[in-house]
Write a structure and sequence with these properties.
Rossmann fold, six-stranded parallel sheet, 18 helices, about 45% helix, about 15% strand, binds uridine-5'-diphosphate-xylopyranose, UDP-glucose 6-dehydrogenase, UDP-Glc/GDP-Man, EC 1.1.1.22, UDP-glucose 6-dehydrogenase activity, NAD binding
């Protein structure tokens, strides 16, 4: 059985660790954050992710999964080391690689035999070569090692499913030596004929940024179409269905919303455009995607004001704060920009999210906005209801109850989950996007 160390227990690291244990390897998840490791050792996940609890328990019970803060021990114990530490956005928009650099240094100092070092973290082109150079410079006994780029494409909220059923596995190498062992790591996928894209380090690094930028561009595109549909009286939903039927376009990621957010699209589009500019090859489409996404959030506020007039002193019941459903993650959520703008204009906000309340309370305190106990408590005496996240439980609201709880009757559905006719029949002033 392969022994694998996974450094970093964020979304990617935890999913990788638990997923690889599930594939049959013995995995040690490593993190310098003592609190997180303690929590994991007690069987509790630091994130909300459907289906992950069970997989964690099963694999710990089977003896394939352990957690430790002793990174040196873990590195020396493992045959393969996955780097899955964060690469957050630095002030200048670039990826902050300090955690990756520190990890590479520790790996170099700890080497005690041949190891494969696999980078899961999203890193700019050239980083794996840098990792190799750092490890080498601390590798006093000159042990052999290989560096591999193996980007992860999982979505939050679907992390476990995506890890176990990927569309493809991308592996970047500078030498074929580690390939056999990596195929063994991913054996169940390999046997299931999941495509393996074997390429060089730089191409592999860029594939991840290109994927996320393309998807972000697709969302920004449909949001622009929604804005145009609104302006000229066309229907973006039917437009998206018609576009999607063309196999060359595909139907996924054509749902208009309040603007994309999350830990990947904003950060990766920013990092890629800054990097490309630095290399003298600006990426106009990706730069415009970022700008277009900001305009979408402005458009949302504009739309609210277009319907209600001034928002000062008006009460808003916001349903949904997370950047999308099935996650408690608030990072770069469109809700932050939209709520902050409404607050600046004097609106009063009461908000509710099924999972993201704790994270939301780190952004706004009780003086800035208030938090509802549930949907109905949140819209009590509100002048307007605003849906920002497409949680399933918002799809079946008791609309008459909502209507009678409200002071005025504006209902803004920015995930297009209700039908205009039905809402107007309930006496609501209904607005969505692009329909
Ligand atoms: C994304 C990529 O999908 C994943 O492959 C990568 O590994 C990490 O980044 P994630 O950030 O978890 O995953 O969320 P995703 O489901 O892609 O949604 C990103 C944002 O786009 C969300 O704010 C979502 O609401 C928005 N979106 C997505 C839309 O507004 N419309 C769509 O049709 C799809």
């Amino acid at each position: 059985m392969l022994k694998i160390g996974v450094i970093g227990t964020g979304y990617v690291g935890l999913t990788t660790g638990i997923g690889l244990a599930n594939f049959g390897s013995t995995v040690m998840c490593l993190d310098i954050n003592n609190e997180k490791i303690q929590q994991l050792n007690l069987g509790a996940l630091p994130i909300y992710e459907p289906g992950m609890d069970e997989l964690l328990r099963d694999n710990v019970k089977a003896g394939r999964l352990t957690f430790s803060t002793d990174l040196t021990f873990g590195i020396q114990w493992a045959q393969i080391i996955f780097i899955a530490v964060g690469t957050p956005q630095a002030e200048n928009g670039k990826a902050d690689l300090s955690a990756v650099e520190k990890t590479a240094e520790l790996i170099g100092k700890s080497l005690n035999g041949y190891k494969i070092v696999v980078t899961k973290s999203t890193v700019p082109v050239g980083t794996n070569e840098m990792i190799r150079a750092i490890i080498d410079s601390f590798n006093a006994n000159e042990y052999e090692f290989d560096v591999v780029s193996n980007p992860e494409f999982l979505r939050e909220g679907k992390a476990v499913y995506d890890f176990l059923h990927p569309d493809r596995v991308v592996i970047g190498v500078s030498h074929p030596r580690p390939l056999d062992m990596l195929k063994q790591v991913y054996r169940p996928l390999y046997l299931n004929e999941v495509p393996f894209i074997i390429t060089d380090l730089r191409t592999s690094e860029l594939i991840k940024y290109a994927s996320n930028s393309f998807l972000a561009m697709k969302v920004a595109f449909i949001n622009e179409m929604a804005r145009l549909c609104d302006t000229v009286g066309a229907n973006v939903q039917q437009l998206a269905i018609a576009l999607g039927k063309d196999g060359r376009i595909g139907s996924k990621f054509l749902h208009p919303g309040p603007g994309f957010g999350g830990s990947c699209f904003p950060k990766d589009t920013a990092a890629l455009t800054v990097f490309a500019r630095e290399k003298g090859m600006p990426l106009g489409l990706v730069e415009e995607t970022i700008a277009s996404n900001s305009r979408q959030k402005e458009f949302i506020v504009h739309k609210i004001k277009g319907r209600m007039g001034a928002v000062s002193g008006r009460r808003f019941g916001i349903l949904g704060l997370a950047f999308k459903s099935e996650t408690d993650d608030m990072r770069e959520s469109a809700a932050i920009t939209i709520i902050d703008q409404l607050l600046r204009e004097g609106a009063m906000i009461r908000a509710y999210d099924p999972r993201a309340m704790e994270n939301a309370k780190k952004i706004w305190d009780n003086h800035q906005i208030s938090f509802g106990r549930d949907e109905y408590d949140t819209v009590q005496d509100a002048d307007a209801v605003v849906i920002l996240t497409e949680w399933n439980q918002f799809r079946n609201l008791d609309i008459p109850r909502i209507k009678s709880a409200m002071r005025e009757s504006y209902f803004f559905d920015f995930r297009n989950i209700y039908r205009r006719k039905q809402m107007e029949e309930y006496g609501l002033i209904y607005e969505c996007i692009g329909r």
